[in-house]
Amino acid sequence: MSSSLHPMLNVAIKAARAAGAIINRAALDVESVRVSAKQTNDFVTEVDHAAEQAIIETLLTAYPDHGIWAEESGRRDGKGRDKEHIWIIDPLDGTTNFIHGFPVYCVSIALMVKGRLEQAVIYDPTRNDLFCATRGRGAYLNERRIRVAKRTALRDCLLSTGFPFRPGDAFQTYLKMLGDVMPRCAGVRRPGSAALDLAYVAAGFSDGFFEMGLSPWDVAAGALLVTEAGGLIGNFTGEADFLEQKECLAANPRIYGQLVGVVGKYSKFASAGDKAAVRQSRAPAAEAEAAAAKPSDDLPPAAENAPF
Q1: Rounded to whole angstroms, how far apart are CA atoms 107 and 54?
Q2: 82 alpha carbon, distance to own chain's centre
Q3: Do the strands 139-141 and 158-161 form a parallel or antiparallel pair, or are they unpaired?
Q4: Average pLDDT over residues 143-163
Q5: Helices (H), ranges, the chain
Q6: CB of 9 within 8 A of CB of 119?
Q7: Per-residue pLDDT averaged across 243-267, rounded?
Q8: Over the stretch 7-48, which tens digit does the pLDDT of each residue have?
Q9: What is the average pLDDT score of the chain?
């Protein structure tokens, strides 16, 4: 694959590896890294800033008129005939993991052209895993073609998720949703890096992913990886125009449809009737317990023994 890479993808890979080198050096002495809080439970480090700067310099050296949409430094428009090219950048997705020395974090870079995702790179510097995709050319992990998992029954699936950062209404809604999902699948994991979660769905390491409160730079690269690997991605009601809606659901097509059936009512785009049903529902733990005990067509008999 390396000999036929799209030139813009090649530059994105170079930028991601440069950022990864900065992150790996800092990880050798993570306790000395300066950390500040952007808001409750949302951290930024000097490493985020240094990695983002390295990415932007690499991209703009090759394509000086391209636009930039980055987590830490914000958005700047492109110029001239290249103004429709926008790089969407998360220099260190999983910062909380990084500052604790928990080795689950990555660099995420995507290129959007005229509102459509065209190139994607997710680089895991702790494992030297490089996920990449070009629209129409498939998704790859370390030069090996990847595909979403082939499972068709939700009860057999391993799902990943992320909790909302800050307590509040969204957190309570999330807990109800999690209580609804858990008895219906084989297991749920919360690794702490949405971009890597999506890359893992694309690679078939997990069967699906759902999370609320995400920003475009968290999900842009992962979205293209998932679709190029044969999966679907959208908001909780299943609509594909999700990038700025702060809801994300991804899976292979069969599991995606089943998950929409479970989590769709928790979407902010759900019908008024669905939202009323969620508000009237019981505490998540009681709900999950009752669901596990109740025999039904949509709930697998083995769910009560599932390793949550």
Answers
A1: 12
A2: 27
A3: unpaired
A4: 97
A5: 7-27, 46-62, 95-99, 169-181, 194-203, 216-228, 253-263, 272-280, 284-293
A6: yes
A7: 95
A8: 999 999 999 999 999 999 999 988 888 887 766 556 678 899
A9: 87
Count each helix (H run) and each strand (E run) in the chain, helices first. 9, 15
- Which amino acid type is present at position 294? K
Q: What's the pLDDT score for residue 307?
A: 29
Give the DSSP letter of residue 178.
H
Strands 158-161 and 208-212: parallel
C-alpha gyration radius of the chain: 19
For the record, the structure tokens of 272 come out as: 């008024």
pLDDT at 294: 43
Q: Tell me how far apart the alpha carbons of residues 173 and 175 are, in angstroms, rounded to a whole number.
A: 5
What dihedral do alpha carbons 110, 113, 118, 124 form, nearest 10°?
Answer: -10
pTM given for the model: 0.86
**Which residues, in sequence order, are CB contacts of 22 under 8 Å at separation 6+?**
47, 50, 51, 54
> CB under 8 Å to 302, separation ≥6 — which residues?
155
The alpha carbon dihedral of 33, 38, 39, 42 has a sign of negative
Q: CA of 214: how far to CAs of 16, 47, 93, 208, 238, in Å?
A: 21, 21, 11, 16, 16
State how far the Cα of 12 lies from the Cα of 73, in Å rounded to an integer. 18
Kindly tell me the sign of the dihedral angle through the C-alpha atoms of 240, 241, 244, 245: negative
CB-based contact 160:206 (threshold 8 Å)? yes
CA dist., res. 85 & res. 122, Å (int): 19
119 has which bridge partners? Answer: 111, 134
- Name the burial class of residue 203, with classes exposed (0-12), middle (13-18) and buried (19+) by CB atoms within 10 angstroms of its CB: buried
What is the distance, to the nearest Å, from the Cα of residue 72 to the centroid of all Cα atoms in its chain? 18
Sign of CA dihedral 259, 189, 267, 286: positive
233 with 249: CB under 8 angstroms?
A: yes
208-243 per-position pLDDT tens digit: 999 999 999 999 999 999 999 999 999 999 999 899
- CA 259, CA 234: separation in Å to the nearest integer? 11
Q: How far apart are CA 130 and CA 225, in angstroms?
A: 12
